[in-house]
Amino acid sequence: MDTLSAVRAQLDAIDDSMHDLLMQRSGIVASLAASRAKAGSTILRPGREADILRRLLARHAGPLPRGALVRLWRELFAASIHQQGGFSVAVYARDAAMARLVAEHFGALTAARTHPTPARALAAVTRGEASVAVLPFPEDADAPEMEWWPALNAPQLSVVARLPFFTEGEAEADALVVAPGAPDPSAEDRSLLLLESDSEQSRGQLLASLTAAGITARLVLVRRAPGISRFLMEADGLIMPGDPRLAALPFDRARMLGAYAAPLRGFSG
């Protein structure tokens, strides 16, 4: 019994120390929020969050599961954003997995409203009714009326994150976060590109053109219509608007839709 009491006292002391550090962290966030308000900068920093999680996962040891570590810090990030106020999410949740993904990433305290289409979710951000939109990652099976990416008004609205950032197994859902302004760079990023051609281009020609321009990319999907072909690409690294490599591509239109921290999927390291 004395041993149990001693262990509980040790755990209580650790809890108090952790609580002290959380209160200290919250105070620093409050000071940072005040300085950002004066500068007019955004409170959403997905690139910074990704770098923090990568650093913590690299140093992590012991029996605490890595997934639990990530969940703890995701709640800390969400609480910091909530503390600064005025943040909400517009989501097109085509299934329950998408809704769970939003709650896990942005936390239970963040206001989230479901919209019937991706276009309605994006419109909520454009009108200032929501801070970000969360939309399913584009797939070949998407109906034409659900395809939001060809009309994305980048760089006014840009893809800034891919969810989930961390999984130890197969991801239950796959989503993109769209927000006003430019992406937040991290130590390892991927860019989302839209390439359009008024003439027929094969996948082989497409990949050869990208390689010649110095871009390593994977084809997400292709849409062909009379007189136009659209290719959605995920490229390694951060490619910003005005990048000379985009201008070198033999396409009628090439533009960046956004960028995000490269997710840790099926993580076991």
Description:
Helix 2 runs antiparallel to helix 3. 39% of the residues lie in helices and 23% in strands. It has 269 residues and is an alpha+beta fold. A hairpin with a 2-residue loop joins strand 7 and strand 8. The chain has a domain of 72 residues: Alpha-Beta Plaits (2-Layer Sandwich).
User: Which structural class best describes the helix and strand composition?
Assistant: alpha+beta
CATH fold type of the domain at 190-261: Alpha-Beta Plaits
Largest sheet: 5 strands, mixed
Overall geometry comes to elongated
How many β-strands, per DSSP? 9
C-alpha-based Rg, rounded: 21 Å
What multimeric state do the chains show?
A: single chain
Secondary-structure element pattern, one letter each: HHHEHEHEEEEHEEHE
CATH superfamily of the domain at 190-261: ACT domain
Per CATH, the class of the domain at 190-261 reads: Alpha Beta
Q: Please report the distance between the alpha carbons of the first and last residues.
A: 39 Å
Under the CATH scheme, the architecture of the domain at 190-261 is: 2-Layer Sandwich
Q: Bin the strand percentage.
A: 15-25%
> Can you tell me the residue ranges where pLDDT is under 50 for at least 5 consecutive residues?
none
Average pLDDT rating: 91
What count of helical segments does DSSP give? 7
Strand order across the largest sheet: 2-1-3-5-4
Can you give the helix content as a percent range?
A: 25-40%
